[in-house]
Amino acid sequence: MSVIYLGVLAHLRADPFESSDALEIIPSGALRVDEEGRIVQIGEKWQILAQTPEARCVDYGDGWLIPGLIDGHIHFPQYYATAAEGGQLLDWLAKSIFPQEAAYADVELAEDTARRFVHHLLACGTTTAMVFGSQFFHANLALFDAAARHGLRLIAGTTLMDRASPLIPESLLQPSVAQARADAETLIARCRADSLLHYALTPRWALSCTAEMMEMCADLLRAHPETYLQTHINENRSEIEAVMRHFSQCRDYLEVYQRFGLIGERTMLAHNIHASDGELVRLAQAQCAVCHCPSSNLFLGSGLFPLARHVQHGIDVAVGTDIGAGTRFSLWENLSDAYKIQQLQGMSLDAAQLLYLGTLGGAKALQLEHETGNFAPGKSADFFVLDGAADGYLNERLRRCESLGESLFCLLHLATARQVSATYVRGRRVFSQNTV
Ligand SMILES: [Zn+2]
Q1: Is the pTM for the entire model greater than 0.90?
Q2: Which of 9, 15, 8 lies closest to 360, judged by CA?
Q3: CATH classification number, 3-67+375-432, choose in 3.40.50.410, 2.30.110.10, 2.30.40.10, 3.30.70.1520
Q4: Which of 106, 228, 312, 359 has its CA 20 to 30 A from that of 283?
């Protein structure tokens, strides 16, 4: 039997950077979902209730039903590394991050954190996450198991480092390229057993891996076309200088990855703040996606992401929390930071564009547009419920809004993860504050 969810429905029917009527808001809306967790119908409450009187109803009243958020970049073994002092990127990694990541050699810590990490994301309304995994195989197995058990759509892989450096603890280096390959193949097979799980080859960044490791990643990417590749690019000036010193034969950072065959339509590059026009042209040609991490960029002082230039070049952009450099687990709260970063550069995003970046835009960037990102019939019922009335001030502010568009804009800036009352993936409730 199908289930009908009632509330204020808001989603993107198209790309609002291209179309002015992409945003659809239905004040007394209904979403009908079948037994398989697929969306059958979206529309007015009275109409859908009249057509299917036998269906079970879940009424969220004035709550907003919003497509599940898509976190395009987050680090699992940095779960407890948020708000860590250490200056900018390279110093911060050495001082605050690598020691934390080394702790996941401990199986118990890895299993406990995997469960908390997945639950925390679901509690924030995030239904899909692209994750830099641990350096340790057992920790990543625990992460995939936790995601499958609790219902998070997960794209993840072992964070690969095999180039020795005085800054990196030896325990974080892969013992060999052959071992890294064997572990990846085991985890790729694990992902095949559950359609919520996807594997991503994850060389941490250009200087963390040997040429052999990068070539292994390119090889597996070709051998398993369902896998992804994720890495970092153009985040911080000192990082870029170090990369260009080492790869002096390359004209820019992107060329390093291109030479190894790592750039394609299933590649996600985090940050890309200091990109040249030439790099943007080649990223667009390769249909490679970029993930903007607003709160991380602010926390590490990395720079202001040039969204307008990415949009002009037609590059798909997702948004990521980048925990632990990011200070907010909620992707929703990161969208407000994304707005402010664009304001500082003279670009004023509207509610449709912000919501797109966190939902349908992220799905498109991750090649999951056929499966999630909005309420189109046939897609998986991935959504969360935002209850503005749960907060006294927010409730009063919303009462003074003159349109639903204005209400959505207010929610984007004022609602926090505490107002998420329920989260669904494939029609299954995976988080609830028991308000219904
Ligand atoms: Zn990162």
Answers
A1: yes
A2: 15
A3: 2.30.40.10
A4: 359
